[in-house]
Amino acid sequence: MKYFEVKFRIETSEELMQAARDILSAMAGDAGFETFEETPEGITGYVQRHLLDRDCLDSILSDFPLPHSTVSYTVSDAEDRDWNEQWEQQGFEPIAAGRFIIHDGRHLPPAAAVSQPFAPLEIEIHARQAFGTGTHETTRMMVGTLASMNLTGRRVLDCGTGTGILAIAALKAGAAEAVGYDIDEWSTDNARHNAALNGVGDNFTVLLGDAGILNSVEGHFDVVLANINRNILLSDMAAMRDKLTPGGRLVMSGFLTNDILPLRQRAEELGFGLVSQRQESEWVCLVFSLQE
Asked: Which residue, 252, 236, 246, 247, is CA-closest to 285?
């Protein structure tokens, strides 16, 4: 596949630079971007040439949500290589999220941590992309929320499954079945690989497509998971609602504190009631219940 390399220059204070990088990389997914590398000036993003939506990107940057921060960019053709190669080689240190420990198979948790009477549940993730390993606040909050839920025998839908980590966590916590979908073929292949790696491949169906693919999925779900950006959540929440059983839970993250109000308003319009809210830095996780 042919890619564009887009160099983003962020003008902000030193204290806000990392937050600006995180926010920009999350929002740029709307414009087609797949992966990013941090630079001293900001970040460099990579996007398939036919997927770059410049109008969307310009709109995102014109209304950047971090105060006193501006972003400019330049676009050039990228050389052909695996943009996630460095991430894949480096891996990540074990991450605790609720009763789960997430690791990459090379950086293993201490033996003492997994030999206790109430040892945590291990999840091994081989990531084709940095997002979806547990290193990001939104993923940690989603996994931590799952750790606090009774998932025994439940049917779970994972929207924008990425590495498959959320569905895998749900299945390890006792869910009977999970269905996940993603628009990126690399992600769907990676999710299947990680499911097999964690011994839950037989209970995890992974589909390639957007929310429209739910029309072909039979039955309803007890829990719907969606770690996606605000615009997609607003657009797809009705489709998610239609696949939930009455009283079922919708767990959402991938957005910032200033996105809470429009998301809550949309959820309430669709018959959801807020159950709980978590926050790390500027990132938020909301749990809703579909009113019976």
From this structure: 252
Task: State the virtual CA torsion across 209, 214, 216, 219 in degrees, nearest 10.
Answer: 150
Q: Which residue has the higher pLDDT, 90 or 266?
A: 266
The Cα–Cα gap between 154 and 139 comes to: 20
> At residue 187, what is the residue type?
S
Strand partners, 101: 96, 122
> How far apart (Å, rounded) are the C-alpha atoms in residues 142 and 166?
7
Per-residue pLDDT tens over the stretch 112-124: 444 444 547 878 7
Which is more confidently placed, 136 or 205? 205
Please state at what angle helix 165-172 crosses helix 185-197, rounded to 10 degrees: 30
Going by C-alpha positions, the residue among 6, 138, 127, 123 that lies closest to residue 71 is 6
Which residue do the tokens 């740029």 mark? 28
Query: What topology does CATH give the domain 137-290?
Result: Rossmann fold (3.40.50)
SS3 271: coil
Q: Please answer whether residues 4 and 47 qualify as being in contact, where contact means their C-beta atoms are separated by less than 8 angstroms.
A: yes
225 or 291: which carries more pLDDT confidence? Answer: 225
Rounded to an integer, what distance in angstroms lies between the CA atom of residue 54 and that of residue 62? 12
Per CATH, which fold does 3-83 belong to?
A: Alpha-Beta Plaits (3.30.70)
